[in-house]
Every structure is written in structure tokens, then in C-alpha cells.
Automatic annotation (TrEMBL), chains A, B:
InterPro entries: DcpS/DCS2, HIT-like_sf
GO CC terms, sorted: nucleus; P-body
Provenance organism: Rozella allomycis (strain CSF55)
GO molecular function, one term: RNA 7-methylguanosine cap binding
PANTHER family documented for this protein: HISTIDINE TRIAD HIT PROTEIN MEMBER, M7GPPPX DIPHOSPHATASE
Annotated protein name in UniProt: HIT-like protein
Example GO biological process: deadenylation-dependent decapping of nuclear-transcribed mRNA
Length: 214, 214
């Protein structure tokens, strides 16, 4: 019998994890590229390197190597594909994978048409292996990118399109990989030209910085 | 004591309502503007007028006038704001309103920079009245447009940003009003130039039409 209850234990648990699971009020922010350059980017650069150490370790083959589904070591278009901790790895309609780019792109704001080969590489190789390994067709997948993400090393979320919706998949926090590729092919600077609207929890350190700027 | 259970009775109930609430498999479609012109638009035009008769009646002041919150009769930038049937009209964090444009714009594909005044009018007047009437600040609102919508007369959904996420708010079905205004101000033809990726249920009549075309 399949279990209907799943418990997640986070250890060691930091203040960041606690913030992530506390119910807190959200506020809408419309961030222009200038706001990104003046407030967001300095904030991202001020974050301690330890915050993405786990990513670096995976990319350098120092951690979680047993879990790796794809390791494409190309310096420009390479990426690592592995299961997200949210997936129990048994129920296919809950499938949740992460594709982390080899190249240290900070976030969606840094993407240009130069990154289309990387994005297409993530899309096609992931679609292929997910079909072969889990029997899930490409048109059953939802691939998306968060802005703002919980860590600033470019990565793509891959879920079965029947996964129950969460706030993390909502328009304004989530951008479909297909849309990103398409928009970049129309305008290489679209993520510098456009404003991005999203909702930040009151506990998010960027909120005060950006709210003052609007 | 506030009730935790809400029952929705739909009467008379059509096959469209039943389809909407049945759990069914979804498939990803990436629709180019050519696919829109060749398949989607003829499909929309083939729909019986009765499908949007309720909208016409509201706009012509023949129905639901007691519910109307804003009636801006400007032929170009006007709209009607009223509560959505999903809202119980008491719980503010479940607030759900609809803004229906006076001008018969079919859907997001038909928008150009000419519509920015309409979109900004919907945004600013709705923000103002929601603050005055319900005490909800503008930065607590999520305004979005569906593609594909359930009826093809341009309308904007307005919810409190704390409303529980549903599939209808997910990236790929939902486009933030702020993003639409911003993208149109960068490229008046963006919704003709870009492909739109979304997920259609197997029961949606457009699925077969578009799937064959991809």
C-alpha cells in the first residue's frame, strides 16, 4: 500500500529553513534591471559562499554522486541532473528533479541568447532521460526557473505536470523554461530590458532593500 | 465562527462545467502565433455566442448589476469589476474579483501597446477601490490573465496574494498583469512574436487541433 503521509526532516536546520516554512505575509515587488544592479546584485554578492557550497560540491563530484542522473561536464553548456529532496523517488506523478548549470550563472537576469544552447541542452537531455528512466513523456513535464530562487546558481526545476501546485510554481515566482528560451530568441537582452514582478515574504532580506527603491 | 467548508452548486450544469472539475491528464503545448492564426482563432470563432452571453449581459447592464464594483463605460479603456463566484465575499484572504474589458478583445494574443491604457486603467482603478472597500493594499494583490482562458473575452483575475495556489495560477496558464504591461511596453507585438507554452487537459477541444500542428 502506498503511504499518504510523507515526513521531511531537515538537519542541520538553519534560520533560512525555518523562514522558508513559516507562514508569512508576502508583498509584491516590481524589480527593474536598475534595481537589480543597484540593490539585488550587491545583496547576492554579499551572501556567504557556504550558501552554495553544496552546489559546488555536486558539480565538483565531491557530493551526492550516487544520485546524479546526468553529468554533462561541458564548461559552457554542461549541467548536473539529480532528484530534488522533495521527491520520494517512487511516485512518478510527484517526480521532482533539479538541473544545475555547470557554468556559474547567477540567475535569470544574467541570461542572454548566448545561453540558449545551455537551456536547450538541459531541456532535450532531461526530456530524453526522463522518458527512458521513468517512462514520462516530454509533454508531461513542467520545467521552470525561479525568480527569486533560494540559491543564486542557475538551476531548472523539473516536475511532472500533475504535481500539486505550490506557491513556487505560480506566475510571478516561476518562469517556464520554454518561455525563457523563446523570449531570449526574440530579444537577447529581454531579462535586462524587462521588469520582473514577484512576491517576497516579509522575512526575505531583499524585501526592505527593494521596497525602498520602488 | 467561520465555516471551513464551502460548497459550490452549479446549476444548470453543462458538459463544460463537468470537464472543468474532472481530473484529467494534461499535455504541454507550445503554440506559435501561426498556430494561433491557423488553428486557435478559427476554433474560438466557431464557439457559439451563447458561451459569452453572460459577459455581454453584464457589460450591457442586463445582469448582475447589484454585484458590480466598478463600471467604467469608456469604449476603449473601460471595464467592469465584480466578484468572482469562487469568492464567499466575506473572507478577505480569499478575495477573488474579475475585471472584464468593455472592448471585445479575444485574448492575450490580441494585445498590443495600444491596450496599455486599458490594462493600466484596470490595474489602478482596481487597486484603488480594493484598498478603499476591502482594506487590501495594492502590493497584496495578484492580478493575472489566463491563456487559454475559459471564455474568450479579455478579463483579468484579481486575488489576494495569500489565496491558496491553484493550477489556474501556475506559470504556463497564468500571466501577471504587471508582466503583460511591461512586455508590451518593450515590444508592442510581443504576443504575436512569442510562442506561448501551456498545458491543456485531454478533454480540451484545442488539444487535438494544436497537437497535430506542433
Amino acid at each position: 500500500m502506498e503511504s499518504n503521509v510523507r515526513m521531511k526532516v531537515i538537519y542541520p536546520c538553519t534560520i533560512l529553513h525555518i523562514r522558508k516554512y513559516l507562514k508569512s505575509k508576502a508583498f509584491k515587488i516590481t524589480e527593474t534591471y536598475n534595481m537589480y544592479l543597484e540593490k539585488t546584485l550587491p545583496f547576492i554578492k554579499s551572501l556567504p559562499e557556504e550558501r552554495t557550497l553544496w552546489v559546488t560540491k555536486i558539480l565538483n563530484k565531491q557530493a551526492e554522486q550516487d544520485d546524479v542522473i546526468i553529468l554533462d561536464e561541458d564548461e559552457k553548456d554542461g549541467f548536473v541532473l539529480l532528484p530534488d529532496s522533495k521527491w520520494d523517488r517512487t511516485n512518478m506523478t510527484n517526480m521532482y528533479l533539479l538541473a544545475i548549470s555547470k557554468c556559474p550563472i547567477i540567475c535569470i537576469r544574467e541570461l542572454s541568447s548566448d545561453h540558449i544552447p545551455l537551456l536547450k541542452n538541459i531541456k532535450s537531455k532531461t526530456e530524453e532521460i526522463v522518458k527512458g528512466k521513468y517512462g514520462i513523456e516530454a509533454d508531461q513535464l513542467r520545467m521552470f526557473v525561479h525568480y527569486h530562487p533560494s540559491y543564486y546558481h542557475f538551476h531548472v526545476h523539473i516536475v511532472h505536470c500533475d504535481v500539486e501546485p505550490t506557491k513556487a510554481m505560480i506566475a510571478g515566482h516561476s518562469h517556464l523554461l520554454d518561455d525563457i528560451i523563446d523570449l531570449l530568441s526574440i530579444d537577447s537582452n529581454i531579462f535586462k530590458n524587462r521588469a520582473l514582478t514577484f512576491y517576497l515574504n516579509e522575512s526575505h532580506p531583499l524585501l526592505t532593500l527593494l521596497k525602498r527603491q520602488e
